[in-house]
Write a structure and sequence with these properties.
It is built from eight helices and no strands. It has 169 residues and is mainly α. It is 74% helix and 0% strand. The longest helix has 25 residues. It folds into two domains: 77 residues, Rna Polymerase Sigma Factor, Chain: A, CATH 1.10.1740; 75 residues, Winged helix-like DNA-binding domain superfamily/Winged helix DNA-binding domain (Arc Repressor Mutant, subunit A).
Length: 169
């Protein structure tokens, strides 16, 4: 097993990105990332090596997120308070490509936010982090075939909602 410091350096950013994708809130994702690594430190003696370290750490992050959801299921945050302000289209100092990129990222975040928790997790783990299907199956406690089918369905739902929202904007 690697040292705590090297684990933190190697996995902090991927864990943060995963949690940010689920929460759409930088502050919450940062807090949950810290909580994840506290749990990692506490759990090191019980790590048996049955899975890859990546799978183990993402499993802990998933559990930390699930507990947070349970504690906060009745509080809601508006999308407008989370997303950055888009610059004025008339601002000549900002290239069009940059504006379009920000708008596209905003749309992607809105679509991700509109998916179910399960769909979000699957897309973030597979498409944002590139985790193999078998690792995702272990993290989520599901079969490999279940993961493949549900990633496919989640991607279809993402595309459908993306096209709908793209037409609205």
């Amino acid at each position: 097993m690697e040292s705590i410091e090297s684990l933190y350096r190697q996995y902090r950013k991927p864990v943060f990105t995963y949690l940010y994708g689920l929460t759409n809130n930088v502050q919450v994702a940062e807090d949950l990332t810290q909580e994840t690594f506290l749990q990692v430190i506490r759990s090191i003696p019980s790590f048996r090596g049955d899975s890859k370290v990546t799978t183990w750490i993402f499993g802990i992050a998933r559990n930390v997120y699930r507990k947070w959801i349970e504690r906060n299921k009745y509080s809601s945050v508006s999308l407008e308070s989370i997303y950055y302000e888009l610059p004025d289209r008339n601002d000549t100092n900002i290239p069009d490509a940059m504006l379009e990129s920000k708008e596209k990222n905003l749309l992607i975040n809105r679509v991700i936010s509109s998916l179910t928790e399960q769909q979000k997790e699957l897309i973030i783990l597979r498409d944002w982090h590139g985790l193999p299907y078998d690792n995702i199956a272990k993290i989520m406690g599901r079969s490999l075939s279940w993961v493949k089918v549900n990633i496919y369905r989640s991607r279809l739902e993402f595309r459908k909602k993306y096209k709908q929202m793209e037409g609205v904007e």
